[in-house]
């Protein structure tokens, strides 16, 4: 597919996201806020109106000249479910067509159990049953690991202890809905492109720090997945020869040195925290001025900065976005990160901006829901047969409500 079609996919989704966040908006305001030409906005909004996703409202007040028509969302056009899976819990969100989270829930989960996938299906059935009236377009699932294809959804994950688990197939059978499965950081990158600081950029690196260390890459507005969906495994960059064992089976990986469990282990070994204390206690010590705790986070930032500089030199992004549970301690990471990162960049990349986002746990699940919301504009065909089913459900919902009179104010 061409770069132009991928950009169109993102732009139409960005229009929906912006109107959902800001309320009814004129075409001129959309063009200004999204940084594109009025002609391009007119082209995309015309198609979105034809698709039954936008509706023209009353004119806005005029300061002279022709009043502008406002555009609003067709509130009953559809909704999606997003699911974040980690080893010990799952978070599910319901989002509107604009990607805004309507409700969320978190449930305990044992990924290592033989009945894990069945349990997941049961939880999702219950969550879906409590949803709104708008047509449910599908379910997006984000997992920490490799996913062969979004539309197939076979998962390999060392964090979950899963090997060739047919997650997509099982959930489609259990829920009788379109299901798209993707690496959780890739899904997060899609959400950033639609709703976050990646919006308006075509080449982006999204870095997550926390339980693990991952990267999602947008190249020419498309997710860079690699041969088997495993692109972006920056946490498994070899850093220290003969270093600590990583869950991937290697030694001295970045994640084995700066992931949360690694930081907790180091803190316990140094006597900074007790054997039953975790990352919140370590972060609290650093916040209170404990020099040892601050040095531990600063060293983690230094190692991240060195590795990330090499990755930026390799892929040449316009912006780097850092987020995840670990950013709650970013003020301590940054002392080591910033000098190591800037010193490691080649001259042309030294001005690349790094945006650190405040973390909300349901952002992972919102990213998974974005897999569904982006499929109506999936000119690349990444969503495959499941994307076609999502588009069919959207078409049926428009046929069932031809007047689409309700708009999100």
TrEMBL record:
Instruction: Please name one Pfam family that this protein belongs to.
Output: ROK
Cite the SUPFAM superfamilies for this sequence: Actin-like ATPase domain (SSF53067), Winged helix' DNA-binding domain (SSF46785)
**Has keyword Cell cycle?**
no
A molecular function GO annotation: kinase activity
Q: Which InterPro entries match?
A: ATPase_NBD, ROK, ROK_cs, WH-like_DNA-bd_sf, WH_DNA-bd_sf
By sequence similarity, the record places it as follows:
Belongs to the ROK (NagC/XylR) family.
Name used for this protein in its record: Putative NBD/HSP70 family sugar kinase/biotin operon repressor
What is the organism of origin for this protein?
Microbacterium halimionae
């Amino acid at each position: 597919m061409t770069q132009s079609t991928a950009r169109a996919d993102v732009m139409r989704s960005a229009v929906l996201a912006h109107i959902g966040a800001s309320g009814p908006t004129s075409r001129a305001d959309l063009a200004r806020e999204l940084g594109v030409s009025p002609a391009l906005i007119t082209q995309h909004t015309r198609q979105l109106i034809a698709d039954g996703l936008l509706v023209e409202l009353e004119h806005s007040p005029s300061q002279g000249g022709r009043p502008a028509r406002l555009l609003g969302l067709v509130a009953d056009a559809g909704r999606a479910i997003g699911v974040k899976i980690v080893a010990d819990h799952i978070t599910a969100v319901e989002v509107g067509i604009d990607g805004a989270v309507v409700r969320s829930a978190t449930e305990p989960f044992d990924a290592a159990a033989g009945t894990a996938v069945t349990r997941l299906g049961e939880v999702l059935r219950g969550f879906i049953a409590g949803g709104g009236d708008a047509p449910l377009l599908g379910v997006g699932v984000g997992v920490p690991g490799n996913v062969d294809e979004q539309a197939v959804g076979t998962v390999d994950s060392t964090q979950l202890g899963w090997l060739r688990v047919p997650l997509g197939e099982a959930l489609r059978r259990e829920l009788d809905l379109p299901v798209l499965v993707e690496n959780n950081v890739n899904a997060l990158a899609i959400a950033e492109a639609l709703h976050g600081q990646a919006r308006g950029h075509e080449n982006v690196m999204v870095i997550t720090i926390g339980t693990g260390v991952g990267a999602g890459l947008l190249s020419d507005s498309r997710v860079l997945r690699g041969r088997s969906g495993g692109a972006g495994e920056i946490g498994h960059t070899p850093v220290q020869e003969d270093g600590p064992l990583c869950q991937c089976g290697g030694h001295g990986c970045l994640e084995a040195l700066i992931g949360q469990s690694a930081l907790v282990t180091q803190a316990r070994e140094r006597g900074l925290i007790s054997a039953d204390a975790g990352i919140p206690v370590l972060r609290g010590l650093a916040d209170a001025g404990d020099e040892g705790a601050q040095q531990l986070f600063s060293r983690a930032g230094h190692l991240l900065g060195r590795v990330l500089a090499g990755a930026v030199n390799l892929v040449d992004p316009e912006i780097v976005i850092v987020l995840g549970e670990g950013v709650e301690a970013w003020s301590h990471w940054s002392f080591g990160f910033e000098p190591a990162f800037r010193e490691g960049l080649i001259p042309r990349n030294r001005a690349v901006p790094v945006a650190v986002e405040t973390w909300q746990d349901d952002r992972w699940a919102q990213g998974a829901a974005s897999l569904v919301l982006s499929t109506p504009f999936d000119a690349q065909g990444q969503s495959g047969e499941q994307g076609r089913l999502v588009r069919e459900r959207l078409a049926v919902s428009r046929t069932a409500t031809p007047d689409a009179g309700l708009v999100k104010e």
